[in-house]
Design a protein that fits this description.
By secondary structure, the protein is an all-alpha fold. The protein is built from 23 helices and no strands. The protein is globular.
């Protein structure tokens, strides 16, 4: 039986979803694991930022470049053709191929010889990760009926923040691990001989972190291959909403042309990502510079818990949407708008507090409000188009989010940090470049550099956070058109 004929015979799929409840849950959790790995590998560079900056003597502007548009451009360029393939070919196989690619490329980042080679391997990660979300969203849309998709997509989207948690928990400690210690551990488990040609005294912890964290994705890809079934397309849509033919990019754009709710949401999501990627990339450097923490302490005591709290915010966004939608049919857009407005003062208060306890509490509350938007962007993105266009619509959304968010956000924070740092160095004979190099500077000059860089980064992330207010307005504008634009109407009485 083909996908098309199976979809046509599933007249009650919009009520039951595809497969048993238990198997549906398993598939959803596996896709969440894949998405989690996606963000572990993507965000690991932010966790390891400060040692990488030190190793290659980078300014914040240079590191912002390393973490931003080279990755984002390839992620965006490859996302659309992979999504088009996902609208036509086996989506599970596409995800498996992509996860293996990005995992291997993450591991290769650990052997980067310099700034350029690290950037090239990061581009490889981007190409692989471009093939995760569009087919995964399309699969979830076929496994779950419309009335349950907000919660399902909220659970799937928890991979974003769960990935951050695990990147911190593993990346932080590994970054402070010495090469000889790791070599001794390999000897203790009987495989040290395989790496006898490596001089462990020259291997830095951040390099170990990339290799150790990158390779497990290959195993997850194998498990996915043998345990997840490709569902019939359009299975969980009402019979009158099912469409057989696959949509081209042109047809998808034509369908989206009359859906202003999509474009307002896409701009809002892009601006949230702009802030989010910028904050994440420089979160550990901020804690190190402003509060004197080490990479391990900053990652485990602050980075990981804050990401866990953000995961709760992601889930709550989807949960509250499902709860309030019967009374407010635009809740999927209104809830993110409210959360983003509340996040701004909470973040800024955290940045300027001298107490680490207050920093944590305020940052945690801000992250909960901030990440309530994630499920909404996917729910609106696929909810306003027919089943034949879902993966391509999500790819278009991710292109916008990637270019504006990941492509510009870290670079903006890095540039503004150096601008403010330069201003803070005014009246001295020091510059951003001389502070980054650190060569030939006296102890007093090094302290001046450290203070200027700390204040400059704090000012930069505070200014960046204000863009949440514009994002909130975009989600509000999306809500004004949403009721008219939705294709898959949610039947809360079923």
């Amino acid at each position: 039986m083909t996908d098309t004929t199976a979809g046509q015979t599933a007249t009650d799929g919009h009520i039951t979803g595809f497969g048993s409840k238990g198997y549906r849950t398993y598939v959803l959790l596996m896709l969440m694991v894949v998405y989690t790995l996606n963000f572990i590998d993507r965000n690991l560079i932010g966790v390891l930022a400060e040692p990488i900056i030190t190793t290659f003597s980078l300014s914040d502007t240079q590191f912002g470049l390393l973490a931003s548009w080279p990755f984002a451009i390839f992620y965006a360029v490859m996302g659309l053709p992979i999504a088009m393939a996902a609208d036509r070919l086996n989506r599970v196989n596409i995800i498996v191929i992509c996860i293996v690619l990005w995992s291997v490329m993450t591991a290769l980042c650990g052997i980067a010889a310099g700034f350029l080679t690290l950037m090239l391997f990061r581009i490889g990660v981007a190409i692989g990760e471009a093939g995760c979300t569009p087919p995964a969203n399309s699969i979830i849309g076929d496994y779950y009926p419309a009335k349950s998709r907000a919660t399902a997509l909220g659970i799937y989207s928890m991979g974003v923040t769960l990935g951050g948690v695990l990147a911190y928990l593993f990346g932080g400690p590994l970054a402070e691990l010495s090469g000889p210690t790791f070599g001794t551990w390999l000897d203790s488990i009987g495989i040290g001989g395989l790496f006898s040609g490596i001089d462990w005294t020259t291997v830095e912890g951040w390099r170990i972190a990339f290799v150790v964290i990158g390779l497990p994705g290959v195993v997850i890809g194998a498990i996915l291959t043998f345990t997840v079934k490709e569902p019939p397309r359009g299975y969980s849509d009402p019979p009158n909403a099912q469409t057989i033919a696959r949509a081209s990019t042109k047809e998808t754009l034509q369908e989206l042309a009359s859906k202003p709710s999509f474009w307002w949401m896409a701009m809002g999501a892009a601006l949230v990502a702009f802030v989010g990627y910028g904050l994440f990339t420089f979160q550990i450097p901020f804690l190190i510079r402003e509060h004197g923490l080490g990479v391990r302490e900053a990652s485990i005591n602050y980075g990981a818990p804050l990401s866990a709290v953000a995961a709760i915010g992601t889930f709550l966004g989807g949960y509250l949407t499902d709860k309030f939608s019967p009374r407010l049919n635009t809740a999927v857009a209104i809830i993110p708008a409210i959360g983003l407005v509340l996040a701004v003062p909470l973040y800024i208060f955290a940045f300027y507090s001298s107490s680490l306890t207050i920093v944590f509490i305020s940052w945690a509350l801000a992250a909960t409000c901030h990440y309530a938007y994630l499920g909404a962007q996917y729910n609106i993105g696929q909810g306003v188009v027919s089943a034949r266009s879902r993966a391509t619509a999500i790819a278009i959304l991710l292109i916008i989010v990637s270019i504006i968010g990941n492509g510009i956000g870290p670079q903006f924070v890095g540039i503004m940090s150096d601008v403010f740092t330069s201003a803070n160095l005014g009246g001295t004979d020091l510059s951003v470049a001389s502070c980054a190099a650190g060569e030939g500077l006296t102890e007093a000059q090094l302290q001046t550099c450290a203070s200027a860089k700390s204040s400059g980064l704090k000012q930069s992330i505070s200014v960046t956070t204000l863009w949440f207010l514009v994002a909130a307005f975009c989600f509000y504008m999306s809500s004004r058109y949403l009721k008219r634009d939705l294709v898959a109407k949610v039947d809360h009485a079923s």
